[in-house]
Specification:
- It is a single chain.
- By secondary structure, the protein is α+β, with helices and mostly antiparallel strands.
- The protein has one domain.
- About 25% of the residues lie in helices and about 30% in strands.
- It contains two helices and ten strands.
- The strands form three sheets. It has a five-stranded antiparallel beta sheet with strand order 1-2-3-4-5. Strands 6-7-10 form a three-stranded antiparallel beta sheet, covered by helices on one side. A two-stranded antiparallel sheet has the order 8-9.
- The longest helix has about 55 residues.
- It is elongated and about 95 Å long.
Length: about 240
């Protein structure tokens, strides 16, 4: 008498394997997208943080310097600079003299061809404060900046930061107190020109903004422009 012992083995079918692989692929893709989004949020946050810190440093410095200065007229103390052939309403740099110190900058669009330079030709002027008794740098806008007299206020900190616009106005002098109030409107931001759009603005002269995602070529996570408006009081010896 013979006995037929059969062991039945059952494996996965091709359809089951395909379904399992599809599920794993979707899971991995979801994880990858999540990691990328987290990374983008981190980069965007760090970019805004650096721009905000730079803006605060410049604001605090200007308020302190103007507050320790005597009131001064803006005529001849605010200089707008342009390369030959530059648009009339889109300057390349500028200077602002307070009497004891002068601020000198190159706008972001001209950093590769700066209109303001150091005497030695070294380094890059972004936004510097210079010891300048009497405002000689405004009297001679073509004069190069002495390296030892200058302090860079817009440190890059691993980011390409620049001033995109700068406007200062005298609000009102007060003959009774001997003080004067100045209004400042500035834009500071990252400086990848491929991601920035510059348009004429009746107040700022130029308004710089980050391009929308459809035009920014994926650079939005590293683009930020911060406009900050503030006042400073000259003749206020205690600062403001």
């Amino acid at each position: 008498m013979s006995q037929d012992n059969r062991i039945v083995q059952r494996g996965f079918t091709i359809i089951e394997l395909l379904l399992a692989m599809s599920f794993i692929a979707v899971l991995l893709l979801t994880m990858a997208i999540t990691v990328i989004q987290i990374g983008n949020m981190h980069n965007k946050g760090m970019t805004f943080r650096n721009v905000d810190q730079a803006s605060r440093i410049i604001t605090s410095d200007i308020r302190r310097v103007v507050g320790q200065s005597e009131p001064f007229p803006l005529e001849n103390n605010v200089v707008t600079q342009k390369h030959p052939g530059s648009p009339v309403d889109d300057p390349d740099g500028g200077r602002f003299c307070t009497g004891d110190y002068t601020y000198v900058w190159n706008f972001g669009k001209s950093l590769n061809n700066p209109i303001n330079k150091y005497e030695t030709g070294d380094d890059q002027i972004r936004f510097v404060r210079v010891r300048d008794k009497g405002g000689a740098y405004c009297a001679d806008p073509a004069r190069s900046i002495r390296n030892n007299d200058a302090t860079e206020l817009l440190a890059a900190n691993g980011r390409d930061l620049a001033v995109q616009s700068f406007v200062v106005e005298l609000i009102t002098p007060d003959d009774n107190t001997g003080q004067a109030i100045y209004f400042f409107s500035m834009q500071v931001g990252t400086n990848n020109q491929d991601a920035i759009e510059r348009t004429a603005d009746p107040i700022l002269t130029i308004n710089a903004t980050c391009k929308p995602p459809s035009e920014g070529m994926g650079l939005q996570n590293f683009c930020a422009v911060n406009q900050f408006d503030f006042t400073a009081v000259a003749g206020n010896k205690g600062g403001s």
